[in-house]
Design a protein that fits this description.
Layout: H1 8-24, H2 29-42, H3 45-55, H4 62-72, H5 76-83, H6 89-105, H7 114-152, H8 155-165, H9 186-197, H10 203-206, H11 211-221, H12 228-234, H13 236-240, E1 252-255, E2 267-270, E3 282-283, H14 285-314
Antiparallel strand pairs: 1-2, 1-3
Helix pairs in contact: 1-2, 4-6, 5-6, 7-11, 7-14, 8-14, 12-14
Length: 320
């Protein structure tokens, strides 16, 4: 099914058609353009509610929404776009929607485009599935050897493998109450953000006897879609605290279905207009991209760990 842009030609065409009907009914051109744009923005109401409920665990009243919408129509950039002889509805829509999102969330939320989301999702899902195939191949031939090496080594040798595969890995599980405010070095800030995106990827947890091996087994043997909701839940505190930004795109979902045998993981499809709640395998586009990013980094990390362990085993006796 084709995925038209919510901006671009589709929005401009719909807004222009609405403008024409309003002018025919006797509305002045300037007012008709505002009403045409407002109509397109009203179509985001359900999508914004769904986004706020899932990503911000909060809702807003219709009165609040209409107040923000009215204010968005008075932004200088929006007014300039509508005053042009050929109104730029795409630019006006983006400016007004960005303003609305910022006011509702209190932060600068990224507006996503369907084509860009589709490309990114397919790129990440392809890397995840390819890495899993490589991991399975390595473990089919070397699983017992890797397990034996890991269990026979002490914390320092395990840490060396972990840190070569994930440079700058956080030393321990990140406190959920940590704030981005305060003076932190760039590395410290980056580590704290990573600690919220990958809370279970830390030296203290993974150098334990079996946690790394369990992570390796489950992520290599089980379809990544099984972990999608768990990966999403782990970032919830980070989203609420502002560590992790989840982009916004309406009327589209990313399917992360572990039972899909088509070989396509992370496909995009249009959400039904009446669909308030998502199915177990559907994610908002911003959510889906974050989950795929999480899974891609984990698979790359596990591959590097396995290769690092095998490289150590192949070194001359006494060099390990």
């Amino acid at each position: 099914m084709p995925l038209p842009s919510i901006y671009g030609e589709d929005l401009a065409r719909l807004a222009s058609e609405h403008e024409g009907r309003l002018i025919e009914s006797g509305k002045p051109r300037a007012e008709a353009r505002k009403l045409a744009l407002r109509q397109r923005l009203l179509g985001e109401h359900k999508g914004l509610l769904r986004y706020m409920l899932r990503c911000r665990t909060m809702i807003f009243s219709e009165r609040r929404f209409f107040e923000i919408l009215a204010n968005a129509m008075t932004i200088d950039g929006v007014k300039r776009c509508l005053q042009d002889p050929e109104p730029d509805y795409e630019a006006a829509f983006k400016l007004a929607l960005q303003h609305t999102l910022n006011q509702l969330t209190g932060s600068n939320v990224t507006l996503l485009e369907r084509i860009a989301v589709l490309d990114k999702a397919l790129h990440l899902s392809r890397k995840i599935l390819q890495a899993q195939i490589k991991l399975r191949s390595i473990l089919d031939n070397n699983e017992e050897v890797i397990h034996r090496w890991w269990l026979q080594r002490g914390p320092q040798e395990r840490q060396d493998i972990l840190l070569r595969a994930w440079p700058g890995m956080v030393p321990f599980r990140e406190p959920r109450c940590w704030s981005l405010s305060g003076r932190q070095s760039n590395r410290s800030r980056a580590q704290h953000i990573e600690g919220h995106v990958w809370p279970y990827i830390n030296v203290q947890d993974l150098e334990d006897d079996d946690r790394f091996l369990l992570l390796l087994y489950f992520r290599s043997r089980i379809h990544p879609g099984v972990f999608a909701h768990g990966d999403l839940l782990t970032i919830a505190p980070g989203v609420e605290n502002g560590f992790i930004q989840v982009g916004y795109l309406n009327d589209t979902v990313i399917a992360l279905d572990p039972n899909d045998n088509s070989g396509v993981y992370g496909s995009l499809r249009l959400a039904r207009a009446t669909q308030w709640f998502l199915s177990d395998t559907d994610f908002l586009p911003g959510e889906g991209l974050v989950v795929l990013k999480i899974q891609s980094r984990i698979m790359r990390f596990l591959l590097k760990c396995c290769r690092g362990i095998l490289d150590n085993i192949q070194e001359p006796e006494g060099s390990v």
